[in-house]
Amino acid sequence: MRPTLTDAPVHFAKVRDVVDRSSQSGYRTLRSDARDNRERILEAARVLFAAEGLGVPMREVARRAGVGPATLYRRFPTKEALLTEAFADQVTACRAVVDEALREPDPWEGFRLVVERIVELHARDRGFTAAFLSAYPEAVDVTAEREYALRAVADLAQRARAAGTLRPDFVLDDLILVLMANDGIRAATPEARVAAARRFAALMVESFRASPDRVPLPPVARRSG
User: Fold this and answer.
1) Class of domain 16-83
2) Which of 12, 32, 150, 216 has the fewest CB atoms within 10 Å, i.e. is most exposed?
3) pLDDT in tens, 127-156
4) Which one, of 32, 153, 54, lies nearest residue 104 by Cα?
5) Helices (H), the chain
6) Which CATH number does 88-208 carry?
7) How is 69-130 classified by DSSP, letter by letter?
8) Domain range list for the chain
9) Taking Cα atoms as reference points, which of 141, 119, 129, 121 lies closest to residue 55?
10) CB 86 within 8 A of CB 46
């Protein structure tokens, strides 16, 4: 039976409903694809920055993520924007370390904790070290976290000096030197790099102590060939 003119509104309503559902489905798929692309880009950036530092080209991040350069730049117009998102977890971890150190009633223990934990955190991610040390000052979150951490270390150092446990000539630049030296550690595996960083941090902490204690150092890590 052929549709009559009186059936037309019903017919067109059904067609419009089918089109609307198709459009909504496509929109949801597009949003899902965009979300997946973003996560792949961030994961690729985290892996590459952690292993190789911030010198990794954006095109290499795109290649690793399996997306085109246009997709990468649509999500992250600059490398600063990308690393700010990629290092969000490290920023959170750094803040947690500093806050824990500030809650420590013994200022020396707080100072020791913040140095050792931040050194280990940086050993796990070379890119974060570069960002922390102002290689990319426009990465606002990382810059703010650096300033927060340095203010906390300055406060802990002042209290530890007053308690007679920290050598009186310690300055904040010494912590920056520690992080720069820590970034130069090379090891056969990421695990060995972290182990070497822990030993290095323990040595540095003892060098800052007003009266060095003979506490055992962490195990020696195997060096890279």
Assistant:
1) mainly alpha
2) 216
3) 788 777 765 555 556 778 888 888 999 999
4) 153
5) 8-52, 58-65, 69-75, 79-86, 88-103, 107-123, 126-132, 140-162, 172-183, 190-208
6) 1.10.357.10
7) HHHHHHH-SSHHHHHHHHTHHHHHHHHHHHHHHHH-SSHHHHHHHHHHHHHHHHHT-HHHHH
8) 16-83, 88-208
9) 129
10) yes
pTM score, whole prediction? 0.69
**Burial bucket for residue 23 (CB in 10 Å: 0-12, 13-18, 19+):** exposed
As separate numbers, helices (DSSP H) first and strands (DSSP E) second, the chain gives: 10, 0
Tell me which residue has tokens 């880009």: 41
Q: Which residues, in sequence order, are bridge partners of residue 209?
A: 166
Which residues are CB-neighbours of 26 under 8 A, at least 6 positions away? none
Distances (CA, A) of 32 to 22, 74, 113, 129: 15, 16, 42, 33
What CA–CA distance (Å, rounded) separates 83 from 52?
13
pLDDT per position as a tens digit, 68-78: 999 999 999 98
Whole-number Cα distances in Å, 70 to 31, 36, 66: 17, 15, 12
Coil, helix or strand at residue 172: helix
* Cβ–Cβ under 8 Å, residues 170 and 205: no
